[in-house]
């Protein structure tokens, strides 16, 4: 599990630890890890030209001490001071090791620029000098390594309302921050490298499941299992208008842990589903969970869906089915899987607002509708009505293909029927869907059906590893 904490949580943990350690210990731990990460990024430190952009706080201090270490190992290090309050001891250390103070002109011809403008103490946006320096690095194609956070992003929300650094690598300390997990800021971080500094932290604000968590949570059958005890999923998806949605969602469901799938829908669609997947059963019967919504089109039956939402069995509600959601009643066992446009309609805001403030709107919808929300996108945000948030970031952009959402809805339903909570079903579903897409795509085009077909292999790999 990866964890992201708020600035307030990090500050409190830092204060606790600093009270027990000699002054400056944490900054030295951070700077050591930062210098190693920059060395690895550069490949060779000796003779490398490194420019440090230094703001007024400890973020600049980290960059200066790391610069001193790199200078000691033969790098040509130049600090560009963007404030007259640069960290004095850090600057002294840099000069002692052969580093010097220069100007933005040094960015031309540099091998790397280190963003020590602001970290967790920063407000969104860049001041004019910093913005000019960052634009120069972009103009000359010099990669930027961000210290702790890319300067200019909103650290606690992942929003980017103002200009900010786009990093090739972010090196962070103690724990991840929310901007490392939530888009659009997450994209601005590039890969994120975490340096341990020994903070003792409370439960995280946002979590991201890793392979070991998937292995631990997956409902693996045992010796006594039969097809019913593994879970039966009811699928109310597809229509005579969109029969493909039913075929694709069924493929997604069968790629999950469920023991049996029942298809409930018009006869010609049931025939198409049966032709593609002879293992399904058509018609009503007892189920442990439902997936409702993909491709219902004009055949959407809102009163029937509301009956199922009010019934005992948990429900994945997707696409057209989301129109049946209302904000009265208890829906804690409902998992809604909107994309940004559908979430915007549920909250009566425009799509761009949801895209810009993904965490906030996923949380808002979870609270207003009392459901778990899985907001689809390059990084998936999952918000539960009790305030828990998880993200998934392992998706390939090739997954943006027609029908991929239907596979996800079927798979999440399968995981719900297998006995997982909506939060776990959503987290595992997003992870496995992305893992299968990586396998099916292998860095090239893929289709929804190929993603569904890759689910068993992706799952097998994760369960074995
Ligand atoms: N916590 C930990 O565990 C550890 C923390 N460590 C490190 O400390 C960092 C936090 O340091 P910090 O608290 O000094 O804040 P930081 O982000 O450097 O600067 C804040 C100052 O910048 C200014 N400013 C604000 N917005 C701005 C903007 N948009 N553009 C430009 N300037 C802006 C504003 O000052 P002003 O100029 O307004 O007077 C504000 O006071 C943290 O990210 C990590 O790197 C590690 O060393 C070890 C462990
Ligand atoms: K920074």
TrEMBL record:
Cofactor: K(+); Mg(2+)
One Pfam family it belongs to: YjeF_N
Residues the record lists as binding AMP: 376-380, 405
Keyword GTP-binding found: no
Domain YjeF C-terminal: 210-462
Gene3D superfamilies named in the record: 3.40.1190.20, YjeF N-terminal domain
Note accompanying the cofactor annotation: Binds 1 potassium ion per subunit.
Signal peptide feature range: none
YjeF N-terminal domain location: 10-205
Binding residues for K(+): 59, 115, 151
GO biological process: metabolite repair; nicotinamide nucleotide metabolic process
Classification via HAMAP family: NADHX_dehydratase, NADHX_epimerase
Subunit and partners: Homotetramer.
Protein name (record): Bifunctional NAD(P)H-hydrate repair enzyme
Organism field: Kribbella jiaozuonensis
Taxonomic lineage from the root: Bacteria, Bacillati, Actinomycetota, Actinomycetes, Propionibacteriales
This protein's encoding gene: nnrD
């Amino acid at each position: 599990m990866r964890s992201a904490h708020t600035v307030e949580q990090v500050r409190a943990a830092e204060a606790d630890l600093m009270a027990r350690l000699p002054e400056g210990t944490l900054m030295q731990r951070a700077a050591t890890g930062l210098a190693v990460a920059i060395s690895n990024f550069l490949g060779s430190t000796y003779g490398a030209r490194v420019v440090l952009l230094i703001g007024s706080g400890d973020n600049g201090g980290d960059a200066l001490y790391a610069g001193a270490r790199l200078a000691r190992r033969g790098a040509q290090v130049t600090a560009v001071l963007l404030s007259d309050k640069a960290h004095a001891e850090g600057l002294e250390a840099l000069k002692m090791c052969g580093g010097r103070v220069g100007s933005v002109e040094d960015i031309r011809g540099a091998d790397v620029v280190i963003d020590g403008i602001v970290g967790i103490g920063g407000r969104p946006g860049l001041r004019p000098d910093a913005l000019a320096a960052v634009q120069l690095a972009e103009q000359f194609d010099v990669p930027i390594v961000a210290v702790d956070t890319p300067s200019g992003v909103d650290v606690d929300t992942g929003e980017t309302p103002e200009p900010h650094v786009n990093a090739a690598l972010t090196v962070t300390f103690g724990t991840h921050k929310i901007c490392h997990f939530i888009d659009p800021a997450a994209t601005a971080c590039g890969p994120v490298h975490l340096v341990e500094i020994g903070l003792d932290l409370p439960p995280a604000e946002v979590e991201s499941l890793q392979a070991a968590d998937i292995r631990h949570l997956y409902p693996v059958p045992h010796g006594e299992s039969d097809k019913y005890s593994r879970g039966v999923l009811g699928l109310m998806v597809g229509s005579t208008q969109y029969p493909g949605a039913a075929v694709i969602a069924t493929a997604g469901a069968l790629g999950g842990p469920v023991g049996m799938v029942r298809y409930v829908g018009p006869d010609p669609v049931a025939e198409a589903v049966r032709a593609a997947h002879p293992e399904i059963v058509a018609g009503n019967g007892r189920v442990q969970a439902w997936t409702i919504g993909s491709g219902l089109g004009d055949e959407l039956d809102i009163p029937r869906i509301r009956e199922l939402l009010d019934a005992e069995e948990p429900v994945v509600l997707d696409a057209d089915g989301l129109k049946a959601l209302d904000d009265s009643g208890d829906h804690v066992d409902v998992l809604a899987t909107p994309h940004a446009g559908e979430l915007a309609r549920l909250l009566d805001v425009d799509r761009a607002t949801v895209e810009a403030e993904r965490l906030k709107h996923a949380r808002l919808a979870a609270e207003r509708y009392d459901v778990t929300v899985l907001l689809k996108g390059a990084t998936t945000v999952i918000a539960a009505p009790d305030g828990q948030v998880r993200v998934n970031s392992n998706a390939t952009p090739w997954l943006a293909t027609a029908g991929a959402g239907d596979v996800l809805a079927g798979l999440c339903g399968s995981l719900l029927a297998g006995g997982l909570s909506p939060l776990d079903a959503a987290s595992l579903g997003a992870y496995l869907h992305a893992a299968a897409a990586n396998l099916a795509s292998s860095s090239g085009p893929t289709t929804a059906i190929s993603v569904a077909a890759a689910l068993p292999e992706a799952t097998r790999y994760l369960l074995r590893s």
